[in-house]
Structures are given as C-alpha cells and as structure tokens.
Structure prediction request, 134 residues.
Amino acid sequence: MAKNLETKLKIESWDEKPYREFDDGRKFTKADVVLGGDDKGIEKATFESLMYYGADGNAVYLSLMEVTGTLDGKTGSFVLDGRGEYNGGVASGTYTVVPGSGTGELAGITGEGSSSSTHEDYPNMPFSLRYDLG
Prediction:
C-alpha cells in the first residue's frame, strides 16, 4: 500500500559551477547539493544535478539523489532520478525511485516524488514522496 511523505529538507550546501558558457549568457552547470534531514525519518539526501540555463536565465535540470533514512520503521537508502526546471522564480521537479536502488530494509522500495520551491522557501526544499515498501 502506497504511503505519502510531505517534508522540508534543509539545504546545507549547494556548490554549483559552470562547465560550459556562451557569450549570449547560456551555460551548462553542475551542482553538488547536501540536504539535511527532517523529523519524519529522512537523515540526509545528497544529489548531483546537471543544468542548462538559457540566455533568459531559465533552466532545466537532470539529477540523481541518494536519500538515507527510516520510512515506516525501516532503515536504508534509495536513489531518485529527477528532472525539472527553474523559471526564475520557482524551481520544480519530479522524481522516480530508481528500480533496485533500495538498500537495507528499504530494498524493493518504489515510488515517485516532487518538489516545488521559491526563494522564500530557502534554506528549505519542500519535498513530497509517494512510496511503497512492497
């Protein structure tokens, strides 16, 4: 039976660097991000994102996020495959649990997640996860 987790994860660090830039303002960047845990069982999450910014400053991104913690009393980790966009005011994304990525008691986890945040949310990242432990 699927369960829902609604939380806010604290952005502890965000290290973003361009690796290709163009004269018109377009650029490619890579970000390494560490998110702190919450009071709902997530201990921490880390992710890497590859981003493309258009000349207007809007961006699209792809990411892989490892989440470590305890869900429904079961401890382990799992990986989320994500993609999203930033439109200058809102960063939003969708995530899917990578099949077979669950470890420990979270082996076999499936699910999908989403996030949507504005500058006012900083330093927190609102996050929703709908998951099934099998």
Remarks:
- The longest strand covers residues 3-21.
- Residues 107 and 130 are 16 Å apart (CA to CA).
- The radius of gyration is 15 Å.
- DSSP finds no helices and eight strands in the chain.
